Amino acid sequence: TVEIGSFKIVSESGIAAGVRRIEALTGRNVQSYFTKIEQEMQKAAEKLKASPAELTDKIAHLQEQLKKLQSENESLKRKEAQKSLGDLSETAKDVNGTKLIAASLKGVDMNGLRDLCDTLKQKEKNAVIVLVSDNGDKAQLVVMADAEAVKKGAHAGNLVKQIAPKIGGGGGGRPDMAQAGGKNPSGIADALKEAEAALSAQLIHE
Asked: Domain extents for the chain?
């Protein structure tokens, strides 16, 4: 150990049951490692206009600011989406005696989609609501059905199982509410078409 001198573990990982792999630096390499770390910390501190000792607090503050801005952004998106509820109601289609409101939105997260679906479900009677949001590199889907629609045979969970593959994903849920995520926003139009066909097959023909 005298010949090794300084010793610094730089990584540790499991490679088999009960076996771990440790990588370390010794001797002058340890000093070079710490010198590089110090240089990187100094660069980061300069970019954040702080001293190296203040980096942790500065980063925590920036993370809090980012979280607040993201929350405000989502709130604005939901408000914009809420404004379109009237227009969405006007797009309702009659599918075997039950209303189907199926629409695509932009940049609305899963919580926002659930809120919108819930608002529409309370507003409409004997209705199934299918909302899909294009969020850039992914798509999110929420389906809700009111009690009357469920009684007639609508099942949100089964609808999602049929619709979600169109957006490159999967999901499921209860008869009255289900959701899914996918990685193919380009499939949203096909998903909405599939929603109508799938609902038609579910409903009891009177």
From this structure: 1-47, 51-83, 85-202
